[in-house]
Amino acid sequence: MPDANPEVLIIGGGVAGLVLALEVADHRPVTLLRPASDDQGASRWAQGGIAAVLSPGDDFEAHVQDTLVAGDGLCDEAAVRFTVENGPAAIEWLLSLGVPFTRDTSPDAGYPYHLTREGGHGARRIIHVADATGRAVMDTLKAHAAAHPAIRIRDDLTAIGLLQDAEGCCRGARCLDAAGRRVTLPAHDTVLATGGASGLYRHTTSPQPASGEGMLMAAELGATLMNLEFQQFHPTCLYDPEGSPFLISEAVRGEGGRLLNVHGERFMPGVDPRAELAPRDVVARAIDAEMQRTGSDHVLLDVRHLGEAAIRHHFPTIHAHCASRGLDIVTVPIPVVPAAHYSCGGVATDHHGATDVAHLFAVGEVACTGLHGANRMASNSLLECLVFARSCAAALREAPCTPLPEPSAGEVVADAPPPELAEWRQRLRDLMSRRVAIVRRDAGLAEAASALAALQATVGEAVARTTPGAELASLWHAVRLARLTVECARRRRESRGLHYNPDCPHHGDAHPQPSRSWLRELEG
């Protein structure tokens, strides 16, 4: 290992961050900022699986075309091909680590592991661990990372900003420890793996979703953000007002689950010829419309016709969780509602995770690689995490390194969060859910823009008069990202994929992406 300090700092410990850490740590030391809350983030709750061309009856071109169709004309085809073609090797790598994928024991199986099908896919290509793939992958990666001598896991620090040198390069992060003391972590290369922005919304599919903090931190340094208006709502989150968020996997529909309205009537065949297996944007809008038509706050997902044996075999986690909430899905349909699930936009990167800020990389949901376009296809997210984290690691293994200062801790201690903080965050989430969700209109977006400007001014005053702690810093990032999201939605004068505005219902031309100048403009 070279004498110079080649530290790689990874901010975020979901699948993307852990894969990157493991792939680079044999060559360079890694500091992985991984708060305990990462175990409640999106990666762990990814039930369905990982899409990859694994069956002899499948091929790369089919997966590419399915992805391009789902992305509604905005995918970067080169990024799609890069992801799809590197998918099988990524799965083999997970198998080598011991991820216990569900085997296919049928006598005519063309592949040793069971492959399911999900919305938008024309073939069975989703490898999974029953209905708890994210948890199994996370547990395996965490065990390997904890055992690696070159990976230093810091669960006591929260990143609140990035460091930048005189040449504009990213050189690490500004953090807070558990006591609120400021800590600087210099690093030769910094990788954001902080997740998406589903936390901007009231209903989400994970208990502690990110609110776009990493995206805004990157934008502060001058990184380009793309496609913020394309926020995916998963069609089927368990409708359980008294419980924590719980995703009902797309694989439930892939195995034959049917969507019914509250009167027990199936409605998807009349919306799209693919019915329940249409892409997520189509299904989520159809559910939203059906809820409005019937005046209900949910619809029903029916699997009773599959039989108890199939339900317990394919969906043990879902069956058990619903049972714990008093629902026997063998005998009654599952009440479901769309919920914020995945950010298709984020920090623009190349195929190696590099941003347009030197020494700053981004992988996973925080990044916008071009794979998803205007709508992510089911189970392409974990695939993207794997492929781009491994590609980023390959680039970092070869990067030249120079010595950097040692980490330092200051005496400044953050103030307690203002008492209004919870109210401000709730105001943000309610506003985004009412005006910038599955269906947006010009008047609602204008209302959101005005209200968010006022909220930013209020939060900004608190930031200016105090030493912000982690919670206030997170909200400050979230409010500004929400404003950028609304501005992107207002400037996209068309409906495409996840951005649906009845005031401009047709496809249009390309639109400008948010830049650092937008951020300055919105901040006055």
Structural class estimated from helices and strands: alpha/beta
| Residues in helices, as a percent range | 25-40%
Shape: globular
Characterize the biggest β-sheet.
5 strands, parallel
Identify the strand order in the major beta sheet.
6-2-1-10-17
Instruction: Give the name of the CATH architecture of the domain at 233-340.
Output: Alpha-Beta Complex
What's the overall average pLDDT, rounded? 92
How large is the radius of gyration? 22 Å
Distance between the termini: 47 Å
* CATH structural fold name of the domain at 233-340: Flavocytochrome C3, Chain A, domain 1
- The H-level CATH homologous superfamily of the domain at 233-340, spelled out, is Succinate dehydrogenase/fumarate reductase flavoprotein, catalytic domain
CATH class of the domain at 233-340: Alpha Beta
Strand runs, count: 19
Beta fraction = 15-25%
Low-confidence stretches: 1-5
- The number of helical runs is 14
Structural description of this entry:
With 524 residues, the protein is an alpha/beta fold. Among the domains are: 233-340, Alpha-Beta Complex (Flavocytochrome C3, Chain A, domain 1), CATH 3.90.700.10; 415-522, Fumarate reductase/succinate dehydrogenase flavoprotein-like, C-terminal domain (Methane Monooxygenase Hydroxylase, Chain G, domain 1, Up-down Bundle), CATH 1.20.58.100. The protein is built from 14 helices and 19 strands. The strands form five sheets. A five-stranded parallel beta sheet has the order 6-2-1-10-17, sandwiched between helices. A four-stranded antiparallel beta sheet has the order 7-8-9-19. Strands 12-15-14-13 form a four-stranded antiparallel beta sheet, with helices on one face. Helix 2 packs across helix 3 (77-97) and helix 3 packs across helix 10 (380-398). The chain is globular, with a radius of gyration of 22 Å. Residues 1-5 have low confidence and may be disordered. Its EC number is 1.4.3.16.
